[in-house]
Amino acid sequence: MAINEIYPGYIGLATVDGQRVRCNDFNVNPVQEPLFYDHTIGLRDSIPETIFEGKSDAGELNPQKIIWRPSVKIYQGSISYPLTDELGADPLFALARTGDDFNMTFVYTCNKIARQFTGCKVNSYTFSITAGDFATVQADIMALRMEDVGGSTDYTKEEKIVTWDDVEISGSFGSIPIQSFSVTINNNCMPIYTAGVNVSKELNPGKIRVGMQQVTGTISFYNKGLSLSFMESIIGPTSIEVKTSDGFEMEINCIFRPQERTASVSPIISALPFVGVDKALG
User: Fold this and answer.
1) Each residue of 174-186: pLDDT tens digit?
2) Domain containing 114: what range?
3) Considering its fold, how many domains does the chain have in total?
4) Looking at residue 1, what is its pLDDT?
5) Could you tell me which of 192, 211, 207, 21 has the C-alpha nearest to residue 123?
6) What are residue 170's phi and psi, to 5 degrees?
7) d(CA 238, CA 258)
8) Residue 29 and residue 11: Cα distance in Å, rounded?
9) Nearest to residue 220, comparing CAs of 265, 164, 166?
């Protein structure tokens, strides 16, 4: 058999609100399930009597699931990527912070197969970094529409990944030896479906509504030379600032939860969780 066309594979290139992002993973897809009316499904008893405890039928198959309807549709899934010097101010962080709409295109293979997503919102966003590693972003995206389009893969610009030494984390906790940092923004987005707007019978949502924004995170640090109760002196709202040498900035207004304490034969690492308050993202 002759193979006339070979698909070279995953390219991992997204355009988010006009800015190009090289992805580790992209899995935003349409979600829609057929719905059936249970009282019309019937039975599927096809066990012949020759089989142990068979019910003496001839093995005919009864018809099933005759009455059905399509469910409403949503486009949703995840995207992840490392921060790079070309991104600077991460586009998805700005969109997660404000809850604004944006459009996104993703190129799936090297032969210009792509999909375009419109009316997108960031449902959740996580920024994390660990000592000795690089800064990563993972987000959950919702979209109103999706269509197949032609995509360009002509993007060969070199980019430097933002590593641990490029990130500065500061706040009222002073200069503690931080081992890792993670913060999650949850916008609690909800698709809204209404009658009279889906005249094309696509069953897409009419709007995606942003709910109450929640910000949570954790600072993990080495305990050597530190009092295990030093963080308990921080009472009331405070702020955490995250900056990179490449232009990414995040200010978090928060309160600290009670400090977790552990003991083991491995390096003693304490987790200090925090919760955003007021306008959590300054």
Assistant:
1) 778 889 999 999 9
2) 10-31+72-153+161-281
3) 1
4) 42
5) 211
6) -135, 160
7) 14
8) 17
9) 164
Amino acid in position 136 = T
Tokens of 205: 């949502």
DSSP symbol at 37: -
Q: Which positions of the chain have pLDDT values less than 50?
A: 1
Helix (H) / strand (E) containing 26: strand 25-31
Q: What is the DSSP string of 59-117?
A: -PPPP---SEEEPP-EEEEEEEEE-BTTT-S-HHHHHHHH---EEEEEEEETT-EEEEE
What was the pLDDT predicted at 259? 72
In a domain, 128, yes or no: yes
Q: Is 52 part of any domain?
A: no
Q: How many CB atoms lie within 10 A of CB 130?
A: 15
Q: At 192, is the secondary structure helix, strand, or coil?
A: strand
C-alpha torsion sign, points 82, 86, 92, 97: positive
Q: Residues 277, 238: contact at Cβ < 8 Å? A: no
Pairwise CA distance, residues 112 & 96, whole Å: 28
- 257 and 270 Cβ atoms separated by less than 8 Å: no
pLDDT at site 276: 94
Give the tokens for residue 127: 């920024």
β-bridge pairing 238-244 and 68-70: unpaired
Q: Please report, as a single letter, which amino acid is at residue 236.
A: G
Q: How far apart are CA 104 and CA 107, in angstroms?
A: 10
Identify whether 220 is part of a domain: yes
Which residues, in sequence order, are CB contacts of 21 under 8 Å at separation 6+? 13, 14, 15, 79, 81, 87, 91
Beta partners for 85? none
Tokens of 11: 């390219």
Is residue 81 situated within a structural domain? yes
DSSP state letters, 233-263: G--S-EEEEEEETTS-EEEEEEEEPPPP---
Closest CA to 75 of 18, 125, 112, 123: 123
